[in-house]
Amino acid sequence: MFDGIRKRVVCMWFPRLSSDRVLRAHPIDGPFALTLKTNNTERVYCLNEAAERLGLSRGMSFADARAFCPDLVSRPARPDLDARFLATLRRWATRYCPWVGYEGEDGLVLDVTGSTHLWGGEVDMLADMRDRAARAGVALHLGCAETRGAAWAFAHFGNGQTRLDDLPVAALRLDDQTITSLQRLGLRTIGDLNAAARAPLARRFGPELMIRLDQAVGAIPEPVTPESDPPHYATRMSLPEPIGLTEDVMGITMRLLAPLCDKLKAQEAGARRLCLTLRRVDQGEQQVELRLAAPMRDPHRILPLFERGVGEVDAGFGIDQLRLEATQVEPLPVQQIGSRQSSPDQLNDLITRIGTRIGLENIQRFLPADSHIPDHAFTIAPAAFSQPDSGWSTLRPRPLRLFPPEPIATTGSQPPTRFRWRRMTLTSGRIIGPERIAPEWWMADDGWRSGVRDYWRVETREGRRLWLFHTPQNPGWFVQGEFA
Question: Is the domain covering 234-358 a CATH 3.30.1490.100 domain?
Fold first, then answer.
């Protein structure tokens, strides 16, 4: 660092980051809170300013908050979306300096040494930060000092104070138990702590207290580590002469796919969604979007999947620029493979090809569900966004075909020796059972409100292998499935 340049660190604290994120998209007049379930209790996660003025606070149970404020509007908290919002704010903060890192889950830290003059000075730079945050609807508290610890202290506990010694000991980023113990000893401010003997404090509270104090006053350096931007997966090519044939477009697409897939491989990632943008000479653009059934980074497998979309493009007077971007990326670790292509890859390619015609969401698979009720023992999920299961785990065999119960005319509690079903007269041969299945009382299912069912496997002499059940509480016989 050059002589005469003081180190300056800015701490940005967003005290209502979560609620500001929601209210920016859906403004609400009046008290508002986000809730999060913790230890089986719904608690207040974040509040807006109106709710705080009414005396509500973070961590209190949501039931108590509603009792204090019946007009409280609430939404479930989404910490994952809050992290994405903070990442967006970090990219915005790089306008002030390139060294921007995270400070907890609701703050940023900036090393603005040598860049304040670009904004007319430190005061003007901080004013610009406040104005932009206010226009964006985001609450922002700022602290600026020579050390990271002091900047954090002024942002969280400044309240107009200009001296570090006047701030409470909580401004040193200590745990609640240590703060309470220091206050009981009469050490309420950082100045009190600085004036006290260090050796007894270190013996009683451990080295963490002295480290935090030294970091705040600058005796121990605490660097700002900038967060690197995620890799951007996109390639582009401008052509000296416009093209219009499908073969030419596919050839250029292959040339774009090769470096893109190399970058994906270097990051051990695979593309789930690709967007090919074709710019015509008249400045018009057309896009071909490809959604893949599984993460993929093999250009030779991806290229044929573009053929249908590229064939439908109207080239007009010609295409002079192509841009390929992986808009959705997922981890794809390197795996050892054999000489032959594995069948899962072939299945994923088939799902992708069909999905380009009818939509990936419309290609579905059956998955086992945790229920002993035959009707509830499976779920249906899109094949492209779910993994196949090894199979159903049942103590008794289940029929391959399952359909709504169909009544048959017979009496008694034993399987009928002769009955009619679907206009067929059938004679029972081998009979196995019964298997009693009780309803799930915690599930609302009108079909099982009648009570227990006794299931029987009946192999008829005519070759049909049926699954029959009897309802003892309301005597009746039904056929619900057929074995292969």
Answer: yes
